[in-house]
Amino acid sequence: MKQGIVVKSTGSWYDVKGDDGHIIACRIIGKFRLKGLGLTNPVAVGDRVSFEMEADDKGIIKKIASRSNYVVRQSPRKKHQLHLLASNIDQAILVMTIVHPNLKQGFIDRFLLMTEPHDIPVIIVFNKSDLYKADDMEIFEVLKMIYQDIGYQVMLVSALEKTGIEELKQALAEKITLVCGQSGVGKSSLMRAIDPELDIKVKEISDYSGKGQHTTTFAEMYKIGSGHIIDTPGIKTLSFNNLSTQDVAHNFREIFKESEHCKFGNCQHREEPGCAVKEAIEDGRISELRHDNYLKIIDEIEEQNYWERHKHM
């Protein structure tokens, strides 16, 4: 039995880099599950696996080693199943931009809801700073303050002008980093700015639609400097039918911290009396923007679950 790490996922096949350095195309036989939940892709880039060779120089994955962590999202196509984005990572980078395409701030909080359960450090990188006008910079400064205050690192960079690139490069050193973002934010261009030799696809944003075009089809691991990145397909939306409202409350870190002072233990921080979170918002200690996104997510989860419960009636 050989051992290696999954460096690319193409749906039914996985490229595994063996401990001897050779890359073997492997498939799986049977079903692998994650804590009893169905998966659209039971093996993730970053997984340590054991595999056996077949006669045609292909391999069969027989075992997946225990994961130190993983990032999972609700499958966009099969909402009752989960999709593994990556495993065994040291940190994640979320690439955003204020303009071109326009900012969708709620996406930040939805992304953090995927990483927070495993205490995965996240760097929020705002790209395309060369396009920002005065109003855009004001928005950036507000968001920087919100997220730095609750413990996330925030960077301002430009892949085009190479500003902030050296700091980002240092942040990637000797780490395995999951890189995510919505389509069109310049994720691939940013990685190429760090390492021009990186064999990663770059495609410009569509001038016609103003929306990003997917450049990455499947997750893949690349060596970059002294570290590695796991590049993922551009994500359009994030939903959380796999989470409960309590899970959401526990993973908005500042809301969870303040909730211990709420009058009721099951407070959902809506309009309940004695809600310490609402008091903290009024005092400016918790961002109203973050709280609004929290409410939207728990409303969505409750609505989805309601229709699930009543679909057979």
- Taking all Cα atoms into account, the compactness measure Rg is 21 Å
Per DSSP E runs of 2 or more residues, the count of β-strands stands at: 13
Helix count equals 8
Helix content: 25-40%
Give the SSE layout.
Layout: E1 2-9, E2 14-18, E3 23-28, E4 48-53, E5 59-64, E6 70-74, E7 82-87, E8 91-96, H1 106-115, E9 122-126, H2 134-149, E10 153-156, H3 165-172, E11 176-181, H4 187-194, E12 220-224, E13 227-231, H5 245-251, H6 253-259, H7 276-282, H8 288-310
Parallel strand pairs: 3-5, 8-9, 8-11, 9-10, 11-13
Antiparallel strand pairs: 1-2, 1-4, 2-3, 4-5, 6-7, 12-13
Describe this structure in words.
It is a single chain. The protein has about 325 residues and is an alpha/beta fold. The protein folds into three domains: about 1-65, Nucleic acid-binding proteins (OB fold (Dihydrolipoamide Acetyltransferase, E2P), Beta Barrel); about 70-230, P-loop containing nucleotide triphosphate hydrolases (Rossmann fold), CATH 3.40.50; about 245-310, Orthogonal Bundle (Ribonucleotide Reductase Protein R1, domain 1). It has helices at about 105-115, 135-150, 165-170, 185-195, 245-250, 255-260, 275-280, 290-310; strands at about 1-10, 15-20, 25-30, 50-55, 60-65, 70-75, 80-85, 90-95, 120-125, 155, 175-180, 220-225, 225-230. The strands form three sheets. The protein has a six-stranded mixed sheet with strand order 10-9-8-11-13-12, with helices on both faces. A hairpin with a 5-residue loop joins strand 4 and strand 5 (about 60-65). The longest helix has 23 residues, at about 290-310. Residues about 205-215 and about 310-313 have low confidence and may be disordered.
